[in-house]
Amino acid sequence: MPTCPKCHQLIKAEATTCPYCRCELKAYGHPGIPLHRATGEEYLCDTCTYHEDDTCTFAKRPYAKECTLYSDRSQQFDKTTTKRYGLGWRHSLQLWCQRNQGLLMFSGLIGVSLLVAFYATRGR
């Protein structure tokens, strides 16, 4: 069972507030939104990935003691160890065609127009 970060009493895992000290455990009282808290005098921003790459939009940045978006930079996985699997050139071409249908239709329309113009001037 987890403990309350404020009074250190045992609490239920699904609890949104501590029944002993009324400390809020989940953000906005919603059980699906974790609320990260700083320990001691440190701020969460000092060890946050979003603060490091300057993508954080939290209003209390860089002095946040509580945050819902906190991402510990020491817990990040190493990108060099992830393995990328190729999908093959046929699948890549199919995905490209799906993403660029408008461009392909426009190119086809231009091609047909040029063919019509070519045959119209050739017949004269």
Structure overview:
It is a single chain. This protein is mainly α. The chain has 3 helices and 2 strands; from the N terminus they run βαβαα. It has a two-stranded antiparallel sheet. It is elongated. This is Zinc ribbon domain-containing protein. Keywords: Membrane, Transmembrane, Transmembrane helix. The chain crosses the membrane at residues 102-121.
What is this structure's SSE topology?
Blueprint: E1 36-37, H1 49-52, E2 66-67, H2 89-99, H3 101-122
Antiparallel strand pairs: 1-2
Write a short abstract of this structure.
The protein has 124 residues and is mainly α. Helix content is 30%, strand content 3%.
Low-confidence stretches: none
What is the count of β-strands?
Answer: 2
**Within the largest sheet, what's the order of strands?**
1-2
State the order of secondary-structure elements, H for helix, E for strand: EHEHH
Nearest-integer average pLDDT: 84
Counting DSSP H or I runs of 4 or more residues, the number of helices is: 3
% residues in beta strands? under 5%
Category from helices, strands and their pairing: mainly alpha
Radius of gyration: 28 Å
Share of helix among residues?
25-40%
User: Distance N terminus to C terminus?
Assistant: 89 Å
Shape: elongated
| Largest sheet, strands/sense/barrel | 2 strands, antiparallel
Transmembrane segments: 102-121
Protein name: Zinc ribbon domain-containing protein
Keywords: Membrane, Transmembrane, Transmembrane helix
